[in-house]
Amino acid sequence: MDLINYLNTNYLTKQELLDLAKITERELLDYQQQNVMPKCSYKLALNYTSDSFFGEFKEQSKIEYYAKGYLSWIGIIKSVNDLKNMFNIFSQRYSEAITNLKNSGYNSNDEKVNSKLELHIKEEWGHFLNGIYGLCTKSGLPEDIAAKELAILQINEVLAFNESEMDLEKLAKAVNLLDASSSMFAPHERLKSSRHRLIDEVRRMYKLKS
After folding, report:
1. Distance CA 4, CA 209 (A)
2. Is this model's pTM higher than 0.85 or not?
3. What pLDDT is stored for residue 147 in this prediction?
4. Contact between residue 69 and residue 139 where contact means Cβ atoms under 8 Å apart
5. What is d(CA 204, CA 10) in angstroms, rounded to the nearest whole number?
6. DSSP SS3 for 65
7. Per-residue model confidence (pLDDT) at position 48
8. Closest listed residue to residue 182, CA positions, set 198, 203, 169
9. What is the phi/psi pair of residue 172, to 5°?
10. DSSP assignment of 133-171, as one string?
11. Closest by alpha carbon to 71, among 135, 3, 13?
């Protein structure tokens, strides 16, 4: 039940997404097939068994869960004249998020957020469409994705130094950014997640404040 409670609290079922976005299931599938809309982040296969005065009842169902941020993404899809522009919108938002984060003091020497940012964004677009970032970021949208990726790069770069040479203030700032942009992850995923490894454990090991 912990998993179902987590999903129902933090995600929209496909039916909820359709109702709120005012689109049909066919339209959602069309958007996904045209590679402008992410797939679901979780899919549950449920088997129900009920026993009562009227006898035993069994039923099977599948439920898809989508990041809540995808509701606004569908709004953009519905507003554009050419769906081919959706990648450009994603790319512009991602690039602007990286620039804003750098201007706020976050940084990384990794070429994928510097000289190879354009290629990196194309790769991120693929992960976005597969629903991966709906699972591991709070909104599933470009701004949280960019923050998560830059924070991870900065954390790993700081951790690569000897402990006596680490900039703990910089480390804490990056950990807090990752915390702000990352999902909590489903209960069964948490010990394997980047949140556990790079937020919970790093704070514990280096006595960082949240």
Report:
1. 31
2. yes
3. 98
4. yes
5. 26
6. strand
7. 65
8. 198
9. -60, -40
10. HHHHBSS-SHHHHHHHHHHHHHHHHHHTS-GGG--HHHH
11. 13
